[in-house]
Amino acid sequence: MWSQKSMKQADLFIMSWIIRAEQSGITMLEKFAKTIRKHFASILSHYHYPISTGILEGTNNKIKTLSKQAYGFRDKEYFKLKIKALHRSKYVLAG
Predict the structure, then answer these.
(1) What share of the chain is helix, strand, coil (3-state, %, to 5)?
(2) What's the burial of 4, exposed, middle or buried (CB within 10 Å: 0-12/13-18/19+)?
(3) Please, which residues have CB within 8 angstroms of residue 57's CB and are 6 or more apart in sequence?
(4) What span, in angstroms and rounded, lies between the C-alpha atoms of 65 and 42?
(5) Where are the alpha helices (DSSP H) in 5-53?
(6) Can you say how many angstroms the Cα of residue 85 is from the centroid of all Cα atoms in its chain?
(7) Number of structural domains the chain divides into
(8) Residue 33: what pLDDT?
(9) What is the pLDDT of residue 90?
(10) What does pTM read for this prediction?
(11) Cα 6–7–12 angle (5° rounding)?
(12) What residues make up the domain containing 38?
């Protein structure tokens, strides 16, 4: 779906997929098609605003992991420094 060149092509592609999924007779696929239909407009909004929260989600997961590893530490300032180091090391390695 994401490889469609225009919103109109994506619209046709998704609707075609939803119809086939709803007629498949596979319960899980039918439920998924219902979810896609429910969020159809939001999915197509990607063509107006092609952004992703992937980097943000990845950073949040790293912070959660760090928090679990640091369970029991009382020094919040040290924890903040560790979070900054996570963020900074990504750009140091990438550059």
Answers:
(1) 75, 0, 25
(2) middle
(3) none
(4) 30
(5) 7-22, 27-38, 40-44
(6) 24
(7) 2
(8) 96
(9) 53
(10) 0.54
(11) 100
(12) 7-47
Burial of 33 (0-12, 13-18, 19+ CB in 10 A): buried
Regarding whether 58 and 33 lie in a shared domain, the answer is: no
- Say if 1 falls within a structural domain: no
Residues 60 and 36 in one domain: no
- Taking the C-alpha atoms of residue 57 and residue 36, their distance in angstroms, rounded to an integer, is 22
The whole-number mean pLDDT for each consecutive block of 10 residues of the chain, a chain of 95 residues, reads 84 94 96 95 84 83 83 75 72 46
pLDDT at 82: 78
Closest CA relative to residue 7, chosen from 52, 36, 54, 42: 42
Report how far residue 30's alpha carbon sits from residue 58's, in angstroms, rounded to the nearest whole number. Answer: 30
In a domain, 76, yes or no: yes
